[in-house]
Amino acid sequence: MLFSEDSYKFMFAALQEAEKALLDDEVPVGAVVVLNNRIIGRGYNQVEKLKDATAHAEMIALTAASNHTGNWRLSECDIYVTLEPCIMCTGALLNSRIKNLYFGAFDPKFGACGSLYNLAGEGKHNHKIDVYSGIYAGESENLLRSFFSRKKKHNKKLTD
Fold first, then answer.
1. How far apart are CA 158 and CA 150, in angstroms?
2. pLDDT digits (tens, 9 = 90+) for 100-145
3. Nearest 5°: phi and psi at 83?
4. Which of 68, 66, 81, 94 is closest to 132 using CA atoms?
5. Would you say residue 99 has pLDDT above 90?
6. Residue positions annotated with a catalytic role
């Protein structure tokens, strides 16, 4: 599927957020929330840094966007995420009424927007999110591969 030039621009911004996570030795996932073609919320994984299991990129970006708008309802906003959101994050996207979700790589272990579950699009909630996948998927996967490869090597050195 081809995406608009703006979609690539916003996903690239999410990739830059993911790179911040990588530099902080966090799982490299980034997210940006967009309203009227402008980024109003940014986030990257900070679970280890904040010692908080809910400090996923999407959650941080949603909080920033809500603070920006002064409203928890983000019904005119889109979110761009480098990795398919998990159950927790998809629930937050549904609750905040996000309009469109664009994500890069599928997450076969935790994904809740097409991989394991399809919470965003199944129509069982009072809100449905339009979901688009695959934008900069290779770049997103490379960041994740790099992180987990480095972790594996580090853990192997500890056990040798």
1. 13
2. 999 999 999 999 999 999 999 888 888 899 999 999 999 999 999 9
3. -130, 140
4. 81
5. yes
6. 58
Given the DSSP bridges, would you call strands 38-44 and 30-35 parallel, antiparallel or unpaired?
Answer: antiparallel
The model's pTM is 0.94
Q: What is the DSSP letter of 113?
A: B
CB 148 within 8 A of CB 140: no
Enumerate long-range contacts of 87-90, CB under 8 Å, 24 or more apart.
Answer: 87/112, 87/117, 87/119, 88/54, 88/56, 88/59, 89/56, 89/58, 89/59, 90/117, 90/119, 90/120
Nearest partner of 38 among 1, 16, 75, 68, judged by Cα:
68
Tell me which amino acid residue 92 is.
Answer: A
Q: Which amino acid is at 156?
A: K
**CA nearest to 55, candidates 80, 24, 77, 94:** 24
Residue 60 C-alpha from the chain's centroid = 10
